[in-house]
Each structure stands twice: as structure tokens, then as C-alpha cells.
């Protein structure tokens, strides 16, 4: 209730500013997402007297954020993108491809890895079961790249191809990000380095991933 009231107040200020500077804002492209663990809905929000629809998730800068910030939807979306990209590149990465294994690894790192590593410092807080979705996908692709039989372990594939597991990449990127925050000149970022103990949502924070 309080959050909706404050949000509506600032939207009225935004309406006045947009009217003053003759800026047209498309209300139909706006959505409202309340990030909470509670099941009850917040009061409706209006922009220029037009109701802003409330949705359970929203896409922002390529990140899919659900109302509970589980990142499950984001990971599922990325899995689908990886499947589509691998299907397009199967003639290069598939079992019958004549491309050398070294070049297959290079293609994988250039074309597929950036898909799932985007925003990893945030979605890395997802549950282990969600992260496993991407790990299974990667292992399946590596098995196809190496034309490996079913009994070859995932550890052998990752070690031989020099491709780290998802969790290893997650920890490496998070540690590097944490180190950058330590020396960043913007003091507003410093609270991100503090550990929070009083949290209703029992889930890891980005700071816990390093």
C-alpha cells in the first residue's frame, strides 16, 4: 500500500514534467511489477488516468525479473535462446561437423557463452535447481561437440575442452565484480558490499557468490 502510494505520487510529478516539456510517454508500454513475497495485490497505478497493467514479471535491459526475483523465468528464457542458437550452428558444432575441436570450442565461447553469462552477477543468486538447467544444456552441447559417447562424464568433457562449469564461471565473475566495487569511486555502491542478515527471502545475495 505504501509503495503504491509513493509510486503514484512520483508518477504525478512525472506527468507534470512530461506535460511541461511536451514529452509524449506511451502508457500502453508500461507495466507494474510489485517485487514481494506476499500474495495480495497492490492498489492499481495510473499514468495519465490510464491503468498500468500489473504483471508477474517484466523484461528490462535483457533481464527477466519475476515478482519474487527467483530468476527462474530468466534462466528458462536463456535456455531457449541457447537451444535456438545451437540449432542454427549445429552444422558447425554438431557430431558430424568436420570442424576441428579447437575451433568448435572457439565458436561456442564466441556465440553461445555470451547468451547465458549476460547479467550473471544478478541471476547467479538463483537456486541450484535453476542453475542446473543451464548446466545440463552446456553439458549436452559439449557432448555433441566432442561426439562423445554417453558414458563420458561431464567432468571429463569440461576438463578436456577447457570449458568451466557454470558455477565456476559464476564464482569467477562475481568475485571480479565484487573486487571492482571495492575500488569504485561511486560511494553509493558501497552498501552493495555489506552483508544483510535480516532477510525474509532465504536466498543468496550477489556478495555471497564471490
Order of helices and strands, N to C? HEEEEHHHHHHHH
- Taking the alpha carbons of the first and last residues, their distance comes to 36 Å
Sequence of strands across the biggest β-sheet: 1-2
How many H/I helical runs?
A: 9
Strand content: 5-15%
Largest sheet: 2 strands, antiparallel
Notable traits:
210 residues; mainly alpha; two-stranded antiparallel sheet; 7% strand
Report on this model:
By secondary structure, this protein is mainly alpha-helical. It has helices spanning about 1-20, 70-90, 90-95, 100-110, 115, 120-125, 130-145, 155-160, 165-180; strands at about 45, 50, 55-60, 65. The chain folds into two domains: about 1-55, no CATH class; about 65-210, no CATH class. The protein is built from nine helices and four strands; from the N terminus they run αββββαααααααα. The two termini are about 35 Å apart.
Amino acid at each position: 500500500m505504501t509503495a503504491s502510494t509513493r509510486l503514484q505520487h512520483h508518477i504525478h510529478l512525472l506527468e507534470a514534467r512530461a506535460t511541461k516539456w511536451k514529452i509524449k510517454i506511451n502508457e500502453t508500454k508500461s507495466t507494474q511489477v510489485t517485487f514481494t513475497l506476499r500474495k495480495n495485490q497492490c492498489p492499481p497505478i495510473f499514468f495519465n488516468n490510464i491503468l498500468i497493467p500489473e504483471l508477474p514479471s517484466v523484461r528490462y535491459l535483457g533481464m527477466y525479473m519475476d515478482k519474487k526475483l527467483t530468476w527462474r523465468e530468466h534462466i528458462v528464457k536463456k535456455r531457449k535462446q541457447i537451444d535456438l542458437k545451437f540449432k542454427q550452428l549445429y552444422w558447425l558444432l554438431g557430431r558430424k561437423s568436420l570442424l576441428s575441436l579447437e575451433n568448435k570450442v572457439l565458436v561456442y565461447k564466441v556465440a553461445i557463452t555470451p547468451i547465458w553469462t549476460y547479467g550473471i552477477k544478478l541471476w547467479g543468486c538463483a537456486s541450484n535447481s535453476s542453475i542446473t538447467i543451464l548446466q545440463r544444456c552446456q553439458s549436452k552441447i559439449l557432448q555433441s561437440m566432442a561426439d562423445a559417447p554417453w558414458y563420458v562424464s561431464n567432468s571429463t568433457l569440461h576438463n578436456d575442452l577447457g570449458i568451466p562449469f557454470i558455477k565456476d564461471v559464476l564464482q569467477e565473475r562475481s568475485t571480479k565484480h565484487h573486487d571492482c566495487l571495492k575500488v569504485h569511486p561511486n560511494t553509493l555502491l558501497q552498501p552493495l558490499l555489506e552483508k544483510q542478515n535480516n532477510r525474509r527471502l532465504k536466498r543468496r545475495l550477489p556478495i555471497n557468490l564471490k
